[in-house]
Structures
1.
Amino acid sequence: MSSEYLFAHKHILGLDHLSVPDIELILNTAESFKEISTRAIKKVPVLRGKTVVTLFFEPSTRTRLSFDIAAKRMSADTFSISASTSSTTKGETLADTARNIEAMMPDILIMRHPSSGACHYLAKHIRTSVINAGDGTHEHPSQGLLDLMTVKEHKGEISGLKIAIIGDISHSRVAHSDIIGFSKMGAHVFVSGPATLIPKKIERLGATVCTTMAEAVSDADVVMPLRIQTERQNDPLIPSFREYATFFGINRQVLQTARPGALLMHPGPINRGVELAPDVADSAQSVILDQVTNGVAIRMALMYLVLGGK
C-alpha cells in the first residue's frame, strides 16, 4: 500500500464501511504508535490542543479507559460523561445532548450506546468526528481492529487463517465486527453456539455456521469464546450456565483440537468457568492481555487518522 494513501473517513462507525487499504493503514499506524506505550514518558504531542469527549451510556472498563489513555498519550484533552450524569436523565434527546457537547467545540466524540445504530444517528446530526465504542448488538469497530492487530502480530498474516468464534453470536457486537473484519482480510470465520444464540442470516457477514463446537474449533488458528450477554436478553436463551459450560465452554481438551500454536482470544470481561476454563485463560496460548495492550494503540491510530493524520 502506498505511503500516500489517504484515509478519507471522518467517523469510525463500523468495519463494514472500511476498505482493506483502510484497515491496513489503521493497523500499520497502530503498530507505529504501540512503541510509545513502552517509553519512560508515554506521551507525544500529535493531538496537542485537540479535545476528546467520551459519552458512555453503558458500563465499560477496558474500552473507556483505553480510549482515555490513548487520547492522553497523544496529549489531547479528555472529558468523560456517563449516562447517569448526562442530561438524558432529565429527558433531553440524544441529538440535543450531542449538539450541546458539539457547541463546546470538541474534536472527537466517542460514544457507547445500548441502541444499534445510535452512533450512525449521531454522526448525521453533528459535525464532530464520531467514533463508535459499541452500539447495541451492531458493531464494536475498535475491538474488531485490535483483534485483527493481535492476530497479525502473532501469526504474521491474517489471510487464510481459520477463526473460530464460539458463544453468544446474536448479542455480540464484537462478533459482528470480527466476522466482517477477518473476512475482509481473507480469513475464514466459523461460528458456533446454542441455536438460540446464532442469528439468522449471519452468513451474510461472511461467517460459516457450524452445528457443533468441535467442527468450529477443529484445526482453528484462533479460538475466541464470547461471554453470554444476559443483559441483552429479555428471556433466558440457555438452560443454565452449567449446561452451557459443558457443551460450549473452552477448556484444555477442546483447545487441543485446534491447530498447534492456536491463539486463544476473548474480548472481555471473562466469566471464568463458563465460556472459558480458568487454566486455559491463563495459559501460554492466551493473548487476551495482548488484546488489551493493542487496544490502546488501535484507538490512538483511530483518533489520529480521523483528525487527518498521515
2.
Amino acid sequence: MTKFEKFINSKPMSYIKIDLKRMPEAFNIVKDDFEIPKIIHIVGTNGKGTTGRFLAEIIKKNGFKVGHYTSPHILNINERFWIDGKNISNLELENSFEKLQKILPERFQNSLTYFEFTTLMNLPIFEDCDYLILEAGLGGEFDATNVFPKQISVFTPIGFDHQAFLGNTIEEISSTKFRSAGKISVLAKQKYDVLPILEKHSDSRIYQVQTKPHQAFLKENMATAKLTAKLLGVFQTEFSFSTFTPLSGRFEKISKNIIVDVGHNLLSAERVVEKIKKKSILIYNSFSDKPYQEILKIFKPKISEVQIIPIFDERAVNQHTLETTLINLQIPFSYFKEIRDSDNYLVFGSFKVVETFLATYKT
C-alpha cells in the first residue's frame, strides 16, 4: 500500500456534519502554486462517469492532453485519476501527494474529508493537462469540486438519489445542483422538466442536448459529450463508440454471461433494464437509504431470481429486511455462491456491490 493510500484510507468516508468553509479555504491557500487546466464540471444523478469519459476521449483524440476525475473507484484509488487514456501510476500518485503535502497546512491535511482531499489532489495530478473533466460527487453547489473555476457546466440526467442531503423533490435536488452552474451550461436530455429550475438558479447561457426519442442512454451521453466538445471548440475529429474505451462498471460486460453496473438508484435501474436482452440472475445488495424495493420492482420482469451478495458496510440494508422485501415481491432469492456458464448474470447495487463481486469472482 502506498503512502497516499495509507493516509487517505485513515479518513472516514463520511462525516455527520460537513464544514462548508473548509474546502474553499484549503483550495484558496494552494491554488496559486499550480497551473489549473480548463475545467469542465459535470454534475447530475446519472451518466456523469460515461459522459465525462466520452468527452475526455474526444478531447484526447483532438490532440489535447486531458484529465478525468471520477468517483468513487471500484478496486483501487488510481481509477479516480485518468490522463490521456490510462489511470495514473502509483509513482505519479505518490509524487503528487508529496507535492501537495509540502504546501497544504497540517490543519487541512487532518480535517479535510476523504472526498475533499482526493478532489484537492487534482491540482498536482492534472496541472500539466490542457483540459480537466471534473465529476462532482453527490451534489453541486456545496460539492468539493465546485471550488474549481469552470469553462462549462454539464448537467447529466437528474433523478432521485441522496435525498437525505439534497432534498425530497426534483426541484430541491436539481436546485442544489444548478446553483453550481457557470457561465455556460449544457443540459442533457432529462426525465423531468428541470429547465425552468436551471433558468431560475443561474445566469448561464444554456445549451440543450437534442436526441431522438427513446434513444439508448449511452448514445444520449455521447450526444452530451459531443455538444460540449463543440462548445469548447475541440471537436474537429469524428468520434464513435468503436473508438471508445468503456469506463469500468458502467454496464460492463466482463465475460460472456456477466454484466456489472455500479448503478444504485431508480433512474439507473430503469436505464439498465432497457439494455437487458436476456433473462438474468440479479446479483444484488443495497445500502439502507436506497429505494431497493422500487428498484427490485423495476428489475422483476427481467430477472429469474436474485442472489444476495453480502457487503460489509455499516450502511448496508439489514439482510432480513431485504429477504422480507423479496418475499413480499414474490421474487425467488438465494445467496451468491458461484457463476454457472448456463446462466446470465447482472451485478447491480452500487460500487460496493461490484467491488465485492469482483474481489470474489475472477474472470
3.
Amino acid sequence: MSRIGVLVVAYNAASTLARVLDRIPADFRARIDEVLVCDDHSEDSTYLVGLGYQKVSRNLPLTVIRHPRNLGYGGNQKVGYRWAIEHDLDIVVLLHGDGQYAPELLPQIVAPLEQGESDAVLGSRMMEQGRARAGGMPLYKYVGNRILTAFENAMVGTAFTEWHSGYRAYRTDALRSVPFEANSDGFDFDTQLLIQLQEAGRRVTEVPIPTYYGNEICYVNGVRYARDVITDVLRYRAHKIGLGTGETAFASTAYELKEGDTSHGRILTWLGAKEPSRVLDLGCSDGHLDELLRKQGHHVTAVDIEELPDARDRLDRLVVADLDRGIPQEVGGDYDVVLAADVLEHVRRPERLLADIHPRLGHNGSVIASVPNFGHWYPRSRVALGLFDYDRRGILDADHVRFFTRRSFERLVSRERYRIRRREALGVPFDVLRRGRPDAGPHPARPLTKLAGSLDRVGVVLCPSLFAYQFLYELEPVSRDVHGDLAPVD
C-alpha cells in the first residue's frame, strides 16, 4: 500500500481553503497518510483557517504551517516536496487552496502512480475538447495555453495536451531523482520540474480534469510567465545540443550516440559504404556507435580510459588505457580504419596520438576524425563578451583540453603527415533530443526544429568556419620521399 501525502499550497485562500479540504472524498481520506497546508505568508487569515480546520477535523491527518516570508509558488512547493521525502511518503499530490482544481478527482490522479504505470501525473484541462472553455477558461488564457503547450512540446520532445495545469502528483522517488531544489521559486517551477522529469526519463501520464474559474484573484503575470517558460524550454533545448552550461540536461551524457545528420550519423554512412573492415575506435565511450558498426559487418577493437557498463558486449575487443600515454602495444596494427571521433580534443598532446596512429594502419588504411569547431559563433560570442567558461557538454565541454578551428586542425594533421581525403562541415545537432521514456527512440523532427536546422545548414554552407559545429575528416597517411616531398604511404 502506497503512503500518500497531499500538499496544499495556499496564498490568501482564507475564503476557499476550508471548502477545498471539505471536498476531499470521504472514502479517499482513509488512504491519506499526511496532509500539509503550506500558507505562503498570506496577507489574510489563511493560516488561522487552517488551524481551525485542524482542530475540528477528525479524519484528516492535517498539518498547517505558515512561512515567515513569502517563498513564491515554486518555493512553497519545494518545502512541501522536502516534507514528503523526509516523511517517507511514496506519493505526493499538489492541490491548490483556491479551489481551482477538484479534490474529488484525487483517486483518479493517484491511480497511475499506485498501479506503477507512471512516475508523475498531470491533470489536463485540454484532453477533452471544449471542456476548458465550458468551464470558464477565458479565451485569451485558452489560446495562450495552447500556443505555449505546442511550443514546449516542440522544444522538449513531448506530446502533452497541457503543460500549465497545477493539478499534479508525483512519486517521491521521482522527485529524489531530479534537482528540483535548483528550480525557480516562481510560477515556472512546474515547467522546470516537468522538463527535469522528462530529462530523467521518468514516465508522465495525463488524466482529464474539469476546468473551474471562480472569483479568486490571479497572481500570475501572464506576460512574465510566458517569457519565463519560453526561456526555460529554449534553454533546455540549447543544453541538449551542447550550447550553454548544460545543467538542465543533467541526465544526458556528453557522449551519447547521436545519429542522423551528426558526426556519428555521417561516420556510419561513410563506413557503411566500405567493405567489412578492421576498425580501431579510440575513445569508444559506451560502445553504442561501435555496436552499429559491427552490424554493418566491421570488426571493432576499441580503446577507452574506463570500461563503461555493457560497453564490452558491444565490441569485439576492448582495451582499457589512457590515450594521453599513447595507443597501447597490445592493440596491434593493420587496421583499415582508425576512428578518432570526438577524442583529439580530450588529450593533451593530440599530435602524439596522431603520430601513434601511423604504425597501426594497414595498406590503404585511413583515419576518420571529428573535432568541435572553436570558431563556431557560440564560443566566439562567449569570448567576445568576456563570458568564456567551460560547459557541461558541447564545444566548450569541461573535459576538453585542446581547442581547434578548421585552420588549426588542418595545420596539425599536415604536420603529422596526413593528407585530407575528404572533409565535411556539420551544423548544430538540433535533432538530438531524447524522449522521456528510456525505451523510446528519437522524437520525430517538428516544424520549428526543421526550420532551425535548415537555417543552420545554410549558414554552414555559406560560412563553415563560423557556423560549423564540428568538422569531420577522412585522412590518409603520407610519408616524405628522398626530396622531402610528401607522398602517400604504400
